[in-house]
Give the backbone structure.
Amino acid sequence: MTDRSYRFTHAISRKPSVSITNGLRAVDTGTPDLDLFTSHHADYVQALRETGAEVLVLEALEAYPDAIFVEDTALCLQEGAIVMRPGAPTRLGEAAEMAPHLRALYSDVREVSGPDAFIEGGDILTTETEILVGRSARTNAAGIAELRELVADWGYAVREVITPEGVLHFKTDCSLLDSETVLATERLAASGCFETYRVILTAEGEEAAANTIRFNDLVLMPAGFPKTRGRLIEAGFNVREVGNSEAAKLDGGMSCLSLRFSPKG
Ligand code: CIR
């Protein structure tokens, strides 16, 4: 089994902007504190760098309050990158801001461009064998169909799945841990989408721990979920906790804060 879905040479991240206080959120649980957000973000970037990866940290984009959540702007594979079409109207322009940075690193950059096609990176889980895409309030069937066509000649199979009702993104509720293992909430696992995987469930009341990232030898997880952390450690993973209180106020987690990849050419 290969390990290209969790071993990476590169990541791209973006500093939080002052405008982050206006970021989108499903429920208002308070205004994010910029200084604390900046410090959590620095810890996150440092953890990625400690694995040996090259991490490009882009400057804040004031015009886009949610621009720190770079994951939603692109899907990065070894063969090339696909620029997304975010379904949140205030976030659509973020994808074009990311495209030149991807072109600098990849020789093949493609774009989801259909006027009715919407898709955000947070709905996409790339495993060793397939690309799962959750239909959600941000990602529609046309977006998934266009992605399927764009990656077909690179040999990827795209499987459409469903993001649970009321959940922002598919990966809000799951993450890849290794070639055959995912971490998932019970409500997502119950949908049956992970039947061919080994599933570690988040502990009851710790659903917000589901969005982790496996990045080289580390699993980065949001701080404050001791039972789920214990399950991951017991399963043999090298867990690093990162403060996520401010990103969580904007429905963000570990995966949203970076694009992770190993460009081939
Ligand atoms: C949004 O609602 O779009 C942002 N406030 C949070 C985006 C989180 N991104 C992700 O899960 N990939």
